[in-house]
Amino acid sequence: MYRVSRRKQEAPGGVASDTQRAVFCSLHARHVHGPQRTQASLRALADRADRGIPANCSRPPPPGTMEGSVMENIFLLVLVTLLSALQNAFFAHKVEKECKTSNVKSSSFERVYCANRNCMDTYPTFMAIMWCAGICLSQAPAAFAGLMYLLVRQKYFVGYMGQVSQSTPGYLFGKRVIAFLFLMSVVGVINFLLAEYLAIDYKEYIQTITKAASALLLIP
């Protein structure tokens, strides 16, 4: 439950420890490989120091390791974002099709246009809090809530094309999903501040509760 921040665990003598490891590597190379290999090792260490690589005996991490770990933490959010882009294209296509098949001042065109405009007005807010919730707390519940929001937004758009009253359930359900994502974002930020400055981390417990609570979004 308690975790000391990584920044606080670092010793102030990090540079000295790297220097000690460099000296150990050079002595080990002299003992095993002789003076010629020792000079080559020292030149390699100097070259690594010029490039900003820590002077230790371990090999650098393989290329692409950091990018892969980052992608694992945001992959579901990326999928939901791409689906939302396709949905926006579908809405725009509906507006364009209605504009060509009917009069601009007709009631059907006004309903489609208003539905698309209402969906676009809330879209930036939805994307912002979904990414904040996924990065600050947990991506799986955030992506699930985002997928639910896309479904209710589709229901809202289709209902608005028929009658305005038919879009009310989708609108209310969308507000509940937005509130859930906003709460996730706030809790994630608060937990990060507690872990950073007070060395108290409840992230695992909060993630478990969030995953269980996200299933409640299925209740109409």
TrEMBL record:
Task: Report the Pfam families cross-referenced here.
Answer: MAPEG (PF01124)
Q: Where in the cell is it found?
A: Endoplasmic reticulum membrane; Nucleus membrane
Which Gene3D superfamilies does the protein's record reference? Membrane associated eicosanoid/glutathione metabolism-like domain
- Principal location class: endoplasmic reticulum
| Gene Ontology molecular functions | enzyme activator activity; glutathione peroxidase activity; glutathione transferase activity; leukotriene-C4 synthase activity
Q: Which UniProt keywords apply?
A: Endoplasmic reticulum, Leukotriene biosynthesis, Membrane, Nucleus, Transmembrane, Transmembrane helix
Instruction: Kindly list the GO CC terms recorded for this protein.
Output: endoplasmic reticulum membrane; nuclear membrane
Q: Which GO terms describe its biological process?
A: angiogenesis; leukotriene biosynthetic process
**Membrane topology label:** Multi-pass membrane protein
Q: Indicate the transmembrane segments per the record.
A: 128-152, 173-194
The answer, when asked if Transmembrane is one of the entry's keywords, is yes
Claim: Cell inner membrane is one of the keywords in the record = no
Q: Which domain of life is it from?
A: Eukaryota
User: Subunit comment for this entry?
Assistant: Homotrimer. Interacts with LTC4S and ALOX5.
Functional note: Required for leukotriene biosynthesis by ALOX5 (5-lipoxygenase). Anchors ALOX5 to the membrane. Binds arachidonic acid, and could play an essential role in the transfer of arachidonic acid to ALOX5. Binds to MK-886, a compound that blocks the biosynthesis of leukotrienes.
Please identify the protein, giving its name as recorded: Arachidonate 5-lipoxygenase-activating protein
Q: Which organism is it from?
A: Scleropages formosus (Asian bonytongue)
- Source species taxonomy: Eukaryota, Metazoa, Chordata, Craniata, Vertebrata
